[in-house]
Structure formats: structure tokens, C-alpha cells
Amino acid sequence: MSPFFTRLKAVASPRIGLGAMNLSHGYGSPVPEPEALRALQAAFDMGYRHVDTATLYGATANESLVGKALASRRDEILLASKCGLAIDPEQGKRVIDGRPATLRRQCEASLARLRTDHLDLYYLHRWDKTVPIEESVGELGRLVEEGKIGAVGLSEVSAATLRRARAEHPIAAVQSEYSLWTRNPEIGLIAACRESDTALVAFSPLGRGFLAGAVEDPARLEESDMRRSMPRFSAEHYPRNLRLLDDVKAVARELEVTPGQLALAWLLAKGDDILPIPGSRSVEHMRENLAAEGLRLDAATVARLDTMLTPDQVVGSRYGAAQQAEVDTEEFPG
Where does the NADP-dependent oxidoreductase domain lie (predicted)? Predict the structure, then answer.
């Protein structure tokens, strides 16, 4: 059993974790700190134990927020963060840097912001293609040896890159977008993960709010909301995608659950090694998401959902050209 699964079991964590990003980054204005702190504390109280953050989120503000909210409960949570992708304070833009010295420096800074002496899981947020993956992973392995991190993870990588990386050091988890409307990990990544007892941590398991029915009109989103630049949410593509959601909503009504809960239950049905980390800015939605932990779909329902929102039906890529160039994931034919 990998260190990740061992730690997950030790903290009696539900398989559904909490992505903290939404509170500080990506979806418009950050949640005011007092409200965000209350939300994180409420999430712990309702049962979340796997909490995910990153150096990037809120230009480090999200790590500081998580540290402030949960430091007193550190031993009771599985704490994950990420390195290798950050906001340059001078340029104000995203910078991918996988050089060993940078990763070590970012780890030390993350530990300070999170008010802890170790991280249970530390991901390389993006593979810096100017640095061999073995060099970046090798440095993370040295941080494991020093006790600063418990296990190494990767984010947004292909099966081939995972295999290269794990030849250098065991990889406990790979974080990848995976949901009813983003099936890319099924091309090869899930199989590669299962070769080496690597967890697949599914970010955006609710399709960035789409699967929960939370986005009726992307044009009404804040100007700073990342979804406004994503092709699937464009004025050209979104109406067609929204019509596809009707079938999912119909199944949810039959089962008397919300569409978001149904989407999470579908992921849970894909294997015990698939761990969704939905994010939310709302305590009510956090509670709704966690309640999906108790849902069990029968094989017929899973098969029925498998035929919905398939790659040949969904229109628009998940990222624009610039962000797509940053990732290393397999893609379905366009």
C-alpha cells in the first residue's frame, strides 16, 4: 500500500476530499478571509480530512488560509500541496519552474505558510518540460528522505511521464481532471496508475460547476473567472453542452439526488483508487458533496451514465491553447 493510502486510512478520511482552491483562486473574487476560515473549519467538522491546496492558488494566499484554519488540527488531516507552478510577484503571471532548487525553496515556503513541519503529499503541479522529469522527481524524493514530505505526487501528466517519473521515485498520487464530461484519464493514465498502486486524485470532479448545474450562463461569471476563457464554456459551445446535461439531471431526479452528487457517485464507482476532491465556496455545497460518499450506484446506472457527456458529444476543449501547452495529459482526437 502506498504512503498516500496508508495516511488516508490513518486519518479515517472519506474518499471525497476538499479542494481549497475555490476560496482564493480561479473563480472570481476571493472569499473574504473570515468567511473562508469559517468554511474550512466547517468542512473539517462535517468530516473532510483530505485537504488540497497549492503554491499557485491566490499567489500563496490559499496555503496561508488553510494553515491558519487547520493548523490546530494538523494531525487529523491529510494535507496536500503543490510546487513547480507559481505566480511571479514581479511579473504577476504564472511561471512553471521544475528546477530542483526552486522546488525545495517552494516546499520550505509552503511549510511555513501551512504552519507545519511536513506535508503528507506534495505534487509537482506542472511538469517543466525544460527540466527532465527525473530531476524534478528526484528532488522531491530527497524531500521525502528528509521528512519534509510524506509522498510524491504529479499533476496533469500522461501515462508515459508517470512511468518515467516512478522509475526515479515512487509516485503516490497523480492529480488529473476527471469527471463525467472529462474522461481523459481513461485513455491511459488510470491503467498506468494501477500498475504501481498510485491513486488518481480527480480534480474538478463536478466539471467546474457545470455538472452541479451551477453555471447557467457563463457570460454572467465575473471577468476574472477562469471559466470565461475555457472553450467548453464559450458562447459557441456552452448551450450545446448544457443540453447534454439534461440526461444526467433526469437520472438524478430518478434517484432523488442532486446532479452533483450523482457525478461524484459515478467517480466513486470507478474504483477505490479514484479520489475526488471537489471544491466549493459554499458550506452548503461542501455538505452536499460530502453526502455523496454514502451513495452507491448499481452497475446499470453506471453504464447508463457512461453513455452521457462522452468525448464525442461534448464540444470545446477543456483548456485554451496557452494552458493546454502547459499540460502533458493524453487528449481524445479533436
Answer: 15-308
HSE-up of residue 42 (Cα within 13 Å, Cβ side)? 16
Residue 10 pLDDT exceeds 90: no
pLDDT digits (tens, 9 = 90+) for 167-193: 999 999 999 999 999 999 999 999 999
Residues in the chain: 334
Question: By three-state DSSP, how is residue 119 classified?
Answer: strand
β-bridge partners, 115: none
pLDDT at 1 over 70: no
Fold for 3-215+270-295, please state it. TIM Barrel (3.20.20)
**Ranges assigned E (strand) in the chain:** 18-19, 50-52, 78-83, 85-87, 94-96, 121-124, 152-155, 173-177, 199-203, 274-276
Residues catalogued as catalytic: 57
Q: Which three cell numbers stand for residue 251?
A: 437520472
202 to 46, 52, 144: CA distances (angstroms): 21, 11, 23
Give the predicted TM-score (pTM) of the model.
Answer: 0.96
- Look at residue 64 and give its three-state secondary structure: helix
User: CA 306, 268, 3 angle in degrees (round to 5)?
Assistant: 135
Helix (H) or strand (E) holding 61: helix 61-70
Q: Mean pLDDT for the chain?
A: 95
Contacts of 153 (CB under 8 A, 6+ apart): 4, 80, 82, 121, 122, 123, 124, 171, 172, 173, 174, 175, 201
Encode pLDDT of 46-55 as tens digits: 999 999 999 9
The span from the CA of 39 to the CA of 286, in Å, is 9
